[in-house]
Every structure is written in C-alpha cells, then in structure tokens.
Amino acid sequence: MSLYAFTGALETGLAFALVALGAYLTFRVLDFPDLTVEGSFPLGAAVAAKLMVSGVDAWTATFVAGLTGCLAGFATAFLNRKLRILHILAGILTAIALYSVNLRVMDRPNIGLINMTTVYTPFEQLGVPSLYAPMVLLAIVVVVAKIAIDLFLGTGFGLAMRAAGANPRMAEANGIQVGRMIVVGLAIANGLTALSGALFAQMLGAADVSMGIGVIVVALAAVIGGTALMPSRAISMLTLACVLGSILYRIALALALSSNAIGLTASDVNVVTAVLVAVALWTPVRKSSLLRRPGRFK
Amino acid sequence: MIRVENLGVTFNRGTALENRALRDINLSIGKGDFVTVIGSNGAGKSTLLNLLAGEISPGSGRIFIGGVDVTSWPVHRRSAVLARMFQDPRAGICEDMSIIENVAIAAARTAPRGFRFAITNDLRQIAVERLSMLGLGLEKRLHDRVALLSGGQRQALALIMATLGTTQVLLLDEHTAALDPAAAELVMNLTREIVQKFGITTVMVTHSMRQALEFGTRTIMLHQGQIILDITGAERASMTVEQLVRMFRRKEGAEISDDQLLLT
Predict the structure, then answer these.
(1) Shortest CB distance from B76 goes to which of A151, A172, A293?
(2) Residue B27 in 3-state DSSP?
(3) What domains can be seen in chain B, in order of their start residue?
(4) Who among A159, A177, A233 is closest to B76 (CB)?
C-alpha cells in the first residue's frame, strides 16, 4: 500500500469515526438501530457545501451542517415515539426523505468544493503539508468528540440514557423518560454524522447526493469490529474501540483493494465491505458468547 | 398514604376476551403500613400493583398517593414518591452497569437528574452506608458489574435502590418468587428491616400464604377482581395458613385449584 493510500485510509477512517461514535450511542447505548445516518451523512455534506458556495465561511457552514443532522435525528425519533413506527423503519423513512431534501438543498446532485477555503485551509497555511492537514484537524475533532461522549455518559443524564437503552422498564420506574432519551440520543448521533459528512465532503472536494450509501454498514463495521476486539467494558475503552475500529476498517479495505494479487478494483468496495462486516459480526460469536449480548440486534 | 376509590379495569373491553380484572376496588392504606396481597392467578393482584405504579391506567376510579390524585400520572412521574421491585432479578437493575452506577440511577429517582457527574463522593458515601445494611459485602464491590451478582444479591441491591431518597411507597411484585429458598428468606428479612427503618408504606404481592401472614401488618385477598378478605391486628395475628385457606374457601365457596396457594 502506498503512503498516499495509507494516509487516505487514515483520514477517511477518522472522518467516519464520528459516525461510528454516533452509532455507538444509538446501537449500543440506546439499543436503537438507527438507519437515519444514510441520509444525515450526505445532508451534512450538502448543507455545508451549499453554504460554502453561497459565501458562508467553512466553520459556520460545518457547524450548521451538524445542527441539521440533529434535526434529522429528531425526525426519526418523532416517527418512532409519536407515530409508533418500528425503529429501523423510522430511520429508513427519514433517510429516504432526506435524499430528496439533499437534492433540494444542493439544487443539483453534487457540488464541487475544489479550490474553496475549507476548514482544513488554516492548517495548510500553518505549514502542515496538505497531505496531512485534514488528518490533523480530524484527529482533533474526533478526540474532542470521543472525550465529550465519555464525559456525557458519566453524568446523571448520561447514566439515564444508558439505563433507557439497557432496561427501559427499569428506567421508567426510576423516573427516566425513555422517549426523551431516544430523542436526545438520536439528535446527538445524527449531529455527529452530519458533521462527519461536512468534514468528509471538504476533504473530498465535493458533496454528492449518493455519498450516504452504505454509511450505516461502515459505522457498524467500526462499532462491532472495534468493540469485539476490545477486552474492556469501560465506556472510554469502548468509544476508543469505535474510533480505532473505524480506522482499522479503512486500512483493511485499502489493503484489500491495493493488493494486486487478489485482483480487486475500486468497484468491488461494497462486496469487500460486506465481507469485512460479516467477519466482524462472526468473530465475537466464535471467540466467546459473552461478547455478544443475547436477544439484541448486533 | 395510598387511597384507591372505585377502581375498575377491564381488559379487551367489548371483545370475546373481555376480562374485568378489577371491579370497583376501594382501599385505604395508612402511612408506614405493610400490606400483603394474596389471591389465585388472575385475581387481579398484579393489575392492582400495575395501576398503583402507573403502568396501566384504570377504566374507572381514582388513585391518590399522599393525598395527591395521581390517576393520570405516567410511570416516570409517580416514581418520585413510589418505587417498585419486580419478580425477575434482572428487571430492576441494569446488568451491564456497575453497582454504583445502578445506585446513581436510583438515587436520581427522587431528585433532579442533571449534567453533573453522577458518581460523586456523596453518592459513594450513601451507597456504602446503605449497601452495608445488607451484610453481603456489596459495599466493597461498587465498581463490579451487576451481571456478576447472584439473583439474591441483585434483589438485595434492587431493594436498596428502591428505598433511596424520599421514597414513600414501595411496591413489591413477588420479588422473592424467582429466588432459591435461602436467598428468598434473606431478601424478605432485609425487606422487612429496611422498610421498617425508613417507615416506607409497602404493598407486597405474593403467592405464598405463609409469607403473606408472616410479613407486614395487614393482608388482603383478591378474587376475581374484588377484595374478599381484609384482615389486620389481632384477627390477623391469630390467623394460621390453614385458617386462611379455609376462609378463602368459605368466602368464595369454591375449590382452590392453585396448588401453590395451598402448599406454600
């Protein structure tokens, strides 16, 4: 694998680590398999790109993009809690609606951001080689997000959210409004996802309406693969596992695609992803049944 | 403390499965009372408890706790004054979380839940103080995951969680039924001790006639959604399990088919 491919894998892994942290909140903490991310990831990219080409500065655009992701999370929570729609289906409905929303936001299927001032530009100006500039900023954002989630889950509100996912009946009996926890959790998770989409689009140099396809599988690969390899059950270790899982997944993917011997090309990426996720899902069962909690969608 | 007026619930109203689970129940429970509730399967014991907890809402009648009409309050709102324990030792706790985290969740039941760190020194102090009352050494295992505890230890922990803060009412739904005899006795004795110490008004549903008479200050028997027996004081003190069974037959005029009711 070339250095270029390696740094590419690393920065893509870091960008998707935010999605993985969000998926950790929904899938693991809330026990809510949230598929909204397929729509909120390109939503973040679309909003940031549209704002940037309209003259809004990159930081504001990225921040607003994150907020719109929170709204997407609210929409899914509303469908699930108020309209009593099955959680997986609620997420799919929001995601499919967001496809049209994203086209509306951008007015066209994609927006190029080449030669625009992005959030990475200041790092390049500081003398960081342009190959590494995104990595530096992304690493900072991911570390901040990871620590913020760790701290949040240790607060009274965070414990309540964990209880709402682990044992909803017990949570209600202890004065916790499970519905409210799901709303907040989905908003945070999709906010992180949209933020990731915004940062990824600026790294890529374009926002595209189809860039959300498979995001959920990638996030799951990171969460399931990462936490399966992590022996500790401490929250800070599990969130670290999600970040590392996201990076390792990208490196594994790059290795698989760069190996000429196997003869895979970029168009085979989805099949490789599916195989990697299947392996990640399979390993815990084989290693120890303790790592797989019974009766859960994981 | 608890007052129930003309309480009635009908499940599947208007269908072939229509079931009047509770019929026009009137009940007044004083502060610090410990009421045991018996009755055969389907008598309405769990329905009564679920109504008090707010898990189901009544078709008719009103429920007052501490003089306040809580009939329309959802579960999470009633939990500020009311706690409950379940039959399944896994139901009242979060298995994947530590003992101290579980205590923190329960401690916030009667107090606001904020964005400060949940595990404070104050909380640790309360947890150690309360858990030592159990005599099970749990106070030395604050950071152990609850999944590592036995059923009896979990129910003991759940008991401590349910009696934290300003809890005034405790609902026990056959909370020792899933435990082995030794653990059941331990949890029952701890329940009596702790409930007495904090003067908590308690309603305990049980399948065991012996338990119903041995613990508490008052016993009521439900049958087909109605209170058919309500004994307290000297009448209750002189009552034996055999008499209770006989009384059940006389009042009801029916054979008891539930073996559990006779044998335990």
Answers:
(1) A172
(2) strand
(3) 2-263 (3.40.50.300)
(4) A177
